[in-house]
Here is the input.
Amino acid sequence: MKITKFFKTGITNIIVLAIAVLLLLTIGFNMGPDFNGGSVISVNCQSYTQLEAENKIRKVVQKYDNATIYSVQYGELYGDDMVTVKIKFTENADKTTEEIVEALYSNSAFGYDKDDIVESKFITATANVGGAFTNVVLTEALLASLVSLLAISIYMIFRQGFANAVSLIAGVILDLAMFMSVLAICRFEITAYVGIATLVVTLVSAILHLVMLTNLSKNAYDEDNRKLNNKDVANLTFENSKKSVFVLASVLAVAFLLIAVVTPAGISGMMFAVVLTIALALITTLFITPSLWAIAFARKRKQPKKTQIEVEEE
Here is the structure.
């Protein structure tokens, strides 16, 4: 690894951040219904297949310009198939939700009798206009991320020194900034799951940097490397660690990619963002962290004892 890669990678990160900041200043994040207002509607399929029920629901919702289905889930309740949709609104969430429910009861949709004690429960709706719950989840997740980062940093200070802790904190903060940039640039929908994803990114980034910094410290104090300066140690560690760090990042990325594939829309979007961030975190770990360590780490190089002949020659 050449030190110039530090600057090349840094420039790439700056460009990504600049694009994200530009988007945030102009159009902002793609805020989901957890913030903008939305509703959850569940329908008992009865004599319909789940796909048929979903199509009926979509046919009703698409009549409203201010309503958009952003998640569809299939399930089962008391032996009956259920379809649950999450709908986001640009305005009039409560009123439009009532109108959609009325339309679903009509003969042109499911034809359920709203006055029947049993059939009146075939369609249920829950309005979620406020973002209180989402803010609580997001706040708790961000606090957990901060506590996790602080705990790892304290561990690094006592076990590997202040320079390693600073390098780790800088790397994780950069990766979190990249995560937010991915959300802004790729237009992933911001939901309550962004808090969980933030915690995941913090932990994954910390793990990758911890592995690299541990190897850097190990090589720095290795007797065989006593003549090497910090830059040489960083280059050596990069060559020895790049394969293992890449494999670790790949395993984590595949794991979260699988989660994204099998989970509902809200959390799947966050997991896709996590996968992209892991790729960026890998670049940070390989090309930026060793260079930061080389700049910050204070290390006295051990000089071999001079022989009697060398002393006499002096």
User: Anything to note?
Assistant: The longest strand covers residues 67-77.
